[in-house]
Amino acid sequence: MTVFLGAIIVGLTLGLLGSGGSILTVPILIYVLGHDQKIAIAESMAIVSGLAFLGVLAAARRGQIDLRSALFFGVSGIAGTTLGAELAGFLSGSTQFILFAVVMLAAAGLMLRTPPNVDPPTTATQPAASARSHALLLVIQGTAIGILTALVGVGGGFLVIPALVIGVRLPMRMAVGTSLAVVTLNSTSGLLNYLSMGVAVDWSATATFLLVGAVGTLAGSRLGAQIPQPLLKRGFGALLFGLALFVLLRELPAHFGATSLRTFFTTSIAPHHHGMHHVGFSRCLRSSEIFCWQPPSLAGGSRHRQ
């Protein structure tokens, strides 16, 4: 039942907003279904890629995908997800989830920034750059978003759309369709990298999320036509802001071995001058330590918990 409820929430928000709704997938998988952080990130990429692909099919029928931009973003994004997955091998699941909360704060800021009665601009106010500058910009942005996708499990549509609208000057509807293609490529590539590293995905829960989420997306699209988009985005931005604060207040103390915020600030903020001990990706899967290490003062005098 909880799987169906979580999938409906993700599908509805994705349908209502067009992008950004899938950012709820990771916290639902962790807090509602109790999945490990790294596993939840991999599952989120599978769910995001599946739902985004459905959107790609619809956008392609309407001719709302710019293939050139999708190619530049997609190829550089795949390279970015490969690099991001390698970086994830040096981070614990807890660290990645805290990074995810920071990304949620950034997404909340982008959504809350939009004036309540004004739609986001669909054209750039700055002069058009040269084709070579556009291509370089797409490669840089695509690589960065690919790294972000693999590290925290978000599709990055809320970052891709502004880049396409402002940097490439695509119309909003074309940017949305193109971003879905980019998200599909990035999420699929990131998922394959995680699977190659031995992350065990719960395919039953993932498939349920995909099927129920797809139904929720269709329902959300119809419902969203009745509600002003700027109002929806501001409301969702406030939700993301609150959820990000909740995650940080919950995860940071436990991450540093504190049982409460007071303990965290009195024991973990003090500087430590001890070295860092890296362990393999498989141990990171079971560890809640930052960079798979812990200062001796927090680990009972040992260099690393076994």
Topology:
Blueprint: H1 2-17, H2 25-32, H3 37-61, H4 67-88, H5 93-113, H6 131-152, H7 157-167, H8 172-196, H9 203-224, H10 229-255, H11 261-267, H12 281-284
Helix pairs in contact: 1-2, 1-9, 2-3, 3-8, 3-9, 4-6, 4-8, 5-10, 6-7, 6-8, 7-8, 10-11
% residues in beta strands: under 5%
Q: Portion of residues in helices?
A: 55-70%
CA radius of gyration = 20 Å
- N/C terminus separation: 36 Å
Number of helices: 12
**Number of domain units:** 2
Annotation keywords:
mainly alpha, 306 residues, 12 helices, 2 domains
Structure write-up:
The radius of gyration is 20 Å and the shape is globular. It has twelve helices and no strands. It has two domains: 2-255, no CATH class; 261-298, no CATH class. It has 306 residues and is mainly α.
